[in-house]
Amino acid sequence: MIQTPQPHTGSYYAATANRSTEYSSLKGEQTANVCIIGAGFTGISTALFLAERGYKVAVVEANKIGWGASGRNGGQMIGGISGEAKLAKSIGREGEKILWDMGWAGHEIIRERVKTYNIDCDLKSGYVDVAIKPRHVADLQAWRDQLERLNFPHEFKLLSKQETEESLGTKAYIGALQNQGNGHLHPLNLCLGEAQAAASLGARIFEQSPVIDIEKGLKPRVLTSKGSITADFVVLAGNAYHFLDAKLRGIMFPVNSFITATEPLSKELELSVNPNDWAVCDPNYILEYYRLSADKRLLFGGRCNYFGNDPNEIKRRLRPRLLKTYPQLKNTNLEFAWGGTIGVPINRVPQMGRLSENIFYSQGYSGHGVNVTHLAGQIMADAVAGTFERFDMFAKMKTLKLPGQHTFARQMVALGMMYYKIKDSL
Ligand SMILES: Cc1cc2nc3c(=O)[nH]c(=O)nc-3n(C[C@H](O)[C@H](O)[C@H](O)COP(=O)(O)OP(=O)(O)OC[C@H]3O[C@@H](n4cnc5c(N)ncnc54)[C@H](O)[C@@H]3O)c2cc1C
């Protein structure tokens, strides 16, 4: 099925992007050392690492740079790789340090790039995991103990119920773990800045160029309707928007998440809801997450059982949830609303592997993609260069295939949401 190229979704990010990109579409027969399919964080991060190492890189994107989840997400830079317990089991005890370092590597990559390439993406430190139930407080205590034990270099603190209420202006939580190592940013502007950096180092980027096939072989050939790229290596980075390889689509759940952005808050309201400018994330599976934008809007997100992209419908569904946490915003207008799709593997472990000797893929970061995609870019670039140490840790993990994922995708998502709603309520 060939997809028709689409413009950016009507998000707050698209409306406040630093620039609009006009890279040409792919035409004619071309060559590259590495051809990357998909210009989200995974694809662009890989491209930048490879361009820095002197590879001749081409990125082929069906729509626009950052069009997928990377340009629409909550902008929360959260440490850790999801599915760590499963990975740890397969790596063994000595792997704890490797996993720990990998869990924070994406943050360092982002911070370094923002500095090196002067990327204006509102990057800030400050984040809290909040607790709703006593078992969440126990989880946060364990997390705090681990940060202590492994000498986490950034400030962190367990907050009491009262401290949480004072810090977040809501009675919704019974505790929190504040962590200055995490943070938040404008994801589309980060992705655009990284793409610009890669292009400045010689990477060629093609937009509005859906890839329709890959011919495997000694030199794989990536085909669009009007052109092709023959390369030594191909990296597939289409994640939950991927429509090329049925096997890759069938090994993770596409989960929808939605965000609404209020109008800019008055100083008084800003101080009443988030005086420290922290990103906030709750521990539920049907979770809520929010933060202030640079122009002091509350960007409030949540997963829900909806498959459309009607902004009014998204606002209608998110508004009651927002007001439950922040009744003080009852007279505040919601100006933007949009949604996107997250790739969630059943075991939550990010999926990296090979479709053949010279075709690699990386996908399925659950809700940690801002961080982990940047690590994945480094791991993909290492794999192209012939270093497989970290790649193999992921590649050897068993992936579970979801039966009927294509035919019954909506029903399965709905069932999954119901299952997790029950789990959240326990
Ligand atoms: C609403 C929402 C909120 C989120 N919030 C957070 C958060 O706060 N923190 C966090 O860490 N993570 C969050 N995530 C997850 C995170 O955004 C993703 O994990 C991450 O952006 C995935 O990046 P990616 O590059 O792998 O995929 P994407 O950004 O989805 O990019 C894939 C790209 O591949 C292109 N493509 C697909 N198939 C083809 C083809 N055949 N030919 C050419 N191009 C193709 C698509 O057009 C798309 O641009 C959120 C996700 C969503 C949807």
Automatic annotation (TrEMBL):
The UniProt record lists the keyword Oxidoreductase: yes
GO molecular function per UniProt: oxidoreductase activity
One Gene Ontology cellular component annotation held by this UniProt entry: cytoplasm
Keyword Cell inner membrane applies: no
InterPro entries: FAD-dep_OxRdtase, FAD/NAD-bd_sf
FAD dependent oxidoreductase domain segment(s): 34-382
UniProt keywords, alphabetically: Oxidoreductase
Protein name: FAD-dependent oxidoreductase
